[in-house]
Design a protein that fits this description.
Blueprint (H helix, E strand, L loop, with lengths): L8 E2 L5 E4 L3 E6 L2 E6 L5 E5 L2 E5 L5 H22 L2 E8 L4 E5 L2 E5 L6 E3 L5 E7 L6 E7 L2 H12 L11 E4 L22
Antiparallel strand pairs: 1-6, 2-3, 3-4, 5-6, 7-12, 7-13, 8-9, 9-10, 11-12
Amino acid sequence: MSRIGKLPIPLPTSVKVEVGEGSVTISGPKGSLSKPFDPCLGIAVDGSTLVVTRPTDEQRHRSLHGLTRTILANMVEGVTNGYARTLDVVGVGYRALMVGPNLSLSVGYSHGIEIPPPPGVTFEAGVEQQTRTPFVIIRGIDKELVGQTAAQIRSVRRPEPYKGKGIRYRGEQVRRKAGKQGKAGGKGGKK
């Protein structure tokens, strides 16, 4: 048995689950999520828990068992508490501002970049008080969508390895490289 797949998912009292043909809809205080799943797997509500079962021990069914259970657990967590990713904008003159619901980034290009939020995601921008570093918080109930949106914002200006400037996840370690090394003999070298 899959160690992850066989674990039951505890359901809070505020969460409602509807299992249909090949799809599951989970509703909670933060909203509602619906996803299609492989119809060969058994998804059932057992009291105050959600249980996923597989029909056989084939490789495909074993793979889907743990994956389906994890996605369902993420959906329950999303409609209950929601998800957030924080990005730090590091660099002299780099800024992140809110223009209505859109995020406006000034990250060293000749023009500003404006990013509209996808449906179900909200942006929040501010400045860290101690370090004066701008940051962006991406919030939503769908873990996959929040992570994908954060990755797209980070790809606007990835952290570079020489000065460390760019957009990075909060807590991300950027491996730094040494810059150009000067010759030991001083200026110019041999002629």
